[in-house]
Specification:
The protein folds into four domains: about 150 residues, HprK N-terminal domain-like (Udp-n-acetylmuramoylalanyl-d-glutamate--2,6- Diaminopimelate Ligase, Chain: A, domain 1); about 150 residues, Beta-Lactamase (2-Layer Sandwich), CATH 3.30.450; about 160 residues, Alpha-Beta Plaits, CATH 3.30.70; about 90 residues, no CATH class. About 45% of the residues lie in helices and about 15% in strands. The protein has 21 helices and 14 strands. A five-stranded mixed β-sheet has the order 1-5-4-3-2. Strands 7-6-10-9-8 form a five-stranded antiparallel β-sheet. α5 links the parallel β4 and β5. α4 runs parallel beside α5 and α6 runs parallel beside α10.
């Protein structure tokens, strides 16, 4: 049995030319597999007999050779074509021949089995397997010159396309920078251009912005801090020419095919790092490292990072550095604002996404009690310094919370507390701080909820409390905030003061009485108020108004005549009391606005 027959053979691989002949997917350089699929080579019935797992190697050029030392004429990345005529006879010479090709970085060796050989020599197969060099045999005669013409045309065309794509990337990020785009816009643009999930994090591995692509926020951010800490990058120089993750094998191909590198010789550039093979780049602020931006790998294992991804991430990092200088608001605060608004307005795609996002911001999400707090001020929040003050107070006490502006004059706080942790003292301190900044501030809270998905309900309840609270009204003794139990009839009607049905009711019940007082200079409305406050006691009404009983009797008869009612009826007195309270609230509301 021959030496070749004893060597296990890789099963024959079928190559077809479906779709555009030999065209690599957009954004990716031509690979060995792409070249073997070309009709000009497929006609030779190619068979991969070694290195079948390395067919994703990029092909930068095609080199025809009949020399015994072809490596001296190569630069790396070439597909080497030979008839086998110069191949050494002895195994040692064959190994030396293969070693030289592997050392220089040849993409693959293609040998035609027509003239000298009709089957590949065993030493050649073994040497290629040892060095991981793809070895492809051709059973039929192939015009090598035609192969070079076709492949070189595709490579040059791909390079021209890559240059155009890179130019478009530069133009897009330049436009973002010129219009002063914020970090959310920059990260979103990066995700759209790369087709990958992009995450911006700070130095303590909190994911501030996540723009998912092809995945959910939950999938992208689950266990973020632990995963991020395991992804350590050197960030000490420009992007490597051929960075590759040792664990995933996902490569970053040579940036030279897409034009000049963005990063200078002293600027840190993107690199593949960590067990998941993230492509990461540092983001600076005033010359110091602030955080980093990461492109997460595609769910498709073979879709490694290409030159276009490197360019996108380089420009993303640069645009974020500029945006950090332009936008004065710390990005952590911006992230809190965005997360709070999404929770309050239920804009998350799923509860799992919400939990993953908050966990990535450093908040506990399991076994936690959540409480919404709203603070409504007379002036815009940004001009008061209250947001930063409350964030600092909560951080000092070790209370987990999100703090952010929900509207120009409304500040929101989401407390994330342990089940045994009392919240009243914390809310009381927050309220006092708000009242120190604005004595007319209205601090409102919702109810406690155990599920993050229900925090929107707590925010809605706090908003209802705020709507029912007139600014400047005295608070319950010893409290700096308002809660649901504080909403009585007056507050309920205050919240409904803009409802025309409430206005119509007050006018229908009391309009004739108010008109009479206006025309005749009487004060029957006050007498009615005293009578109702005294629970229908004429003696009590006389005492409250400082009038004689006879005067009160006379006025009450006039009121009954004008309103066409019997004031002895408890139901009628209740209706008039509601109408009178509504009238008071409507007048207060008009003065407030």
């Amino acid at each position: 049995m021959s030496e070749y027959a004893e060597t296990p053979r890789t099963p024959r691989m079928s190559y077809t030319a479906e779709g555009p002949a030999g065209a690599a997917p957009a954004g990716r350089v031509l690979t060995v597999a792409d070249v073997l699929a070309l009709p000009v080579l497929a006609a030779g019935r190619p068979e991969v007999v070694a290195g079948a797992t390395r067919l994703d190697r990029p092909v930068r050029w095609v080199h025809i050779t009949e020399l015994t030392d072809p490596a001296s004429f190569l630069k790396g990345g070439e597909l080497v074509l030979t008839t086998g005529m110069p191949l050494p006879e002895d195994p040692a010479g064959v190994r030396r021949y293969v070693d030289e090709l592997a050392d220089i970085g040849a993409a693959a060796l293609v040998i035609e089995l027509v003239r000298r050989f009709h089957r590949p020599p065993g030493p050649l197969i073994q040497a290629c397997r040892v060095r991981g060099l793809p070895l492809v045999t051709l059973a039929e005669d192939v015009n090598f010159l035609e192969v070079t013409q076709v492949v070189h045309t595709l490579i040059l065309g791909s390079q021209a396309d890559a240059v155009r794509r890179t130019q478009r990337i530069h133009e897009a990020f330049t436009a973002l920078t010129l219009r002063g785009a914020g970090p959310e816009d920059v990260v979103r643009a990066a995700a759209e251009m790369s087709g990958r999930t992009v995450v911006l994090e700070n130095l303590v591995h909190q994911a501030l912005i996540c723009e998912p692509s092809g995945s959910t926020v939950d999938e992208a951010l689950s266990g973020w801090e632990q995963r991020s800490r395991a992804t350590r990058a050197t960030h000490h120089g420009p992007a490597p020419r051929a960075a590759r993750s040792e664990t995933t094998g996902q490569g970053v191909t040579d940036p030279e095919v897409t034009g000049p590198e963005v990063a200078g010789p002293d600027v840190a550039g993107p690199e593949v790092a960590g067990p998941e093979g993230w492509l990461v780049a540092p983001v600076e602020y005033q010359g110091e490292l602030w955080g980093r931006v990461a492109l997460l790998p595609s769910p498709v294992p073979s879709a490694g990072f290409g030159p276009q991804d490197v360019t996108v991430l380089e420009r993303t990092a640069m645009a974020l550095t500029i945006a950090r200088l332009i936008h004065a608001t710390p990005w952590e605060r911006t992230a809190h604002r965005s997360a709070l608004r999404d929770l309050a307005e239920q804009r998350h795609r799923s509860p799992a996404d919400a939990r993953a996002r908050l966990a990535a911001l450093g908040l506990p999400t399991e076994g936690t009690v959540f409480l919404a707090v709203l603070m409504d001020l007379r002036t815009p929040v940004d001009g008061t310094g209250l947001e930063a003050r409350l964030s600092q107070e909560l951080a000092t006490t070790g209370t987990a919370a999100l703090v952010g502006t929900l509207a120009p004059a409304r500040l929101g706080v989401l407390l994330a507390l342990r089940p045994s942790q009392p919240w009243r003292s914390t809310v009381e301190q927050l309220g006092r701080s708000a009242l120190e900044v604005d004595p007319c501030a209205v601090v409102s809270i919702g109810s406690e909820v155990m599920d993050l998905a229900r925090t929107a309900r707590s925010f809605r309840e706090a908003s209802r409390v705020a709507e029912a609270t007139c600014p400047g009204r005295p608070l319950t003794a010893g409290r700096s905030y308002n809660e649901l139990s504080d909403i009585g009839l007056r507050r309920l009607l205050y919240a409904l003061r803009e409802d025309t049905r409430v206005q119509e009711y007050a006018e229908r019940q009391l309009g004739r009485l108010v008109d009479h007082d206006g025309r005749h200079g009487t004060d029957l409305l006050t007498t009615l108020r005293h009578y109702l406050d005294a629970a229908g006691s004429k003696t009590g009404a006389a005492r409250l108004g400082g009038l004689s009983r006879e005067t009160v009797y006379q006025r009450l008869r006039t009121i009954e005549r004008l309103l066409d009612c019997d004031l002895e009826s408890g139901e009628r007195r209740t209706g008039l009391h509601v109408a009178l309270t509504a009238l008071d609230v409507l007048r207060e509301g008009g003065e407030t606005t």
